[in-house]
Amino acid sequence: KVSFAVNTLGYSRRFHVWAAPSQDAEHTYEALVQAFRYFGGVPRTVLVDNQKAAVLKHDRDHRVIFNAGFLQLANHYGFAPKACRPQRPRTKGKTERMVGYVKQHFFQRYRQFESLAHLNQLLLLWLERVADQRPLRQFRQTPSERFSAEVETLQVLPATDFDTRYHDLRQVGWDGYIEVRGNRYSVPERYCGQAMVIRLSLDDELTVYSPAGDAIAQHRLQVPQAGWRTVPEHHAALWQQTLSVQQRDLRVYEEVL
Which intervals of the chain form a coiled coil (predicted)? Predict the structure, then answer.
């Protein structure tokens, strides 16, 4: 199953589509990162649907409680977040129409894809060659033509993209492993017993960071219950200690007794 995110600029009606395997927070944020990169700038206000990745709730006083991760994204790009009013679908009409447009004009034409990467490549070509050039009858212009004026109002992209990787804390066991999604992954033995930050990329790459912020281990995420994944260099010192104990002369133990 494939999900796709549609993000539309209000003035030009230019939009971006990005396909993903999930609608979780990390993929939702990455869809916006990809859209900003495609547009070459950032709108001053971003109107979002009420998905949990962006909006936790609307309180009794009609105040919006945004997801902390989404606020970090907004702060990184400098846009003001705004949520659609509940039960008011007209507030997101432009994007809803573009969803229908994608289904009708793209997916009716392209029905087979080799991979998600291939699908997103096709979407990008289709956006540039078809969607950006479609005539807007009410304006007698194309989105591409209207964008030439709108681009001047967009904010400059920051020097780096927002880091959309999932992150959490994990305690390193005294055996030199951390547990992630039912499997255990090695880290250098000197970090035994310490709390580490982990980050999981959208392509299932696990990176472990030390308390100082240094990347100390990288692993390919395994399927659930696959077992243990060990980098020999991580535990070389532990194994050396074990071997030294195993190879002691028996007279050492006689002295103890």
Answer: none
